[in-house]
Design goal:
Layout: H1 2-35, E1 39-45, E2 48-56, E3 62-66, E4 88-92, H2 109-122, E5 128-133, H3 135-146, E6 151-157, H4 169-175, H5 186-196, H6 205-230, H7 237-240, E7 247-252, H8 262-269, E8 274-278, H9 285-288, H10 290-304
Parallel strand pairs: 3-4, 3-5, 5-6, 6-7, 7-8
Antiparallel strand pairs: 1-2, 2-4
Helix pairs in contact: 1-6, 2-3
Amino acid sequence: MNSWLAVGGVGLLLVTCALSWRYWAVSLLTLARKRAGLRRHSIGVDGFEMVYYSGGQRDKPPMVFLHGFSADSSNWLFLAPSFRHDFRILIPDLPGFGETGYLPKSYALEVQLARLKDFMDMLHLDQVHLVGNSMGGYIAAAFAANYPDRVASLALFNAAGVDMPKRSPFYEAALAGENQLLIRKPADFDHILKLVYHRRPYIPGFLRDHLINRGIAQADNQDQIFKEMFGQRIWLDELLLKIKAPTLILWGDDDRVLDISSIQLFKAGIPHAQTAILAKCGHVPMLERPVATAKVYRTFLAEATKPT
């Protein structure tokens, strides 16, 4: 009897600990969003209950942020507050990621574009300032090319969508069939941090455990999304010529996911674009160097929105 009580006690302790780190991780993210002035909403898009966060000024021009692969809306928590006084901020969890979650549907680029258009239409967003990082940049650039009248300005941060003259460590692994942005075991999380950041950030243990467990649970679904979106390596080079919006191409100089040499191809496709490079910065400039990123982006916007 006592042995069974002991086993039950250990089990209860383990469950309590698991609930504890999950609770604190979710609470920390909730607090961060609140401090950023963001509120949670959801809207039905193509069968998804699409979660998005909004803030800023409702009577100001809308600004939409698109996160990268295996990420979610929280990737913009350090950058978005810098623009909440002058813009209406909208940050969706793209279908397949974050709180929006996965459904067994198509995730091909053209389908993702249709979902983004539906999202904008349902919120009556006639024209937006569109910002995308990595996969989000891929979607943003393709959207700006297909719907030029819907994009007031375009900002691409370490964006996917073109080949790279110099292959990155991530790209080399991907060609060999390995997706280094998936978490299959705890050690993968540390490898991702090394891959994505120039200087690895400190992450509290409870948040690290939460992100690892969430990543492992989502790995198979995200693998399917990646294979559908990028498996055929459909480049945007010809589409880029259709982009009419003022465009900023920003890159961290130490990107091991999408090499900085990609700038050359984006610039060739969008000749009117401005370029900016952040020193000592990896794949996610809005997380690693948010102040510098905000400064570059704000300077670009001041020029892009100047009356002609």
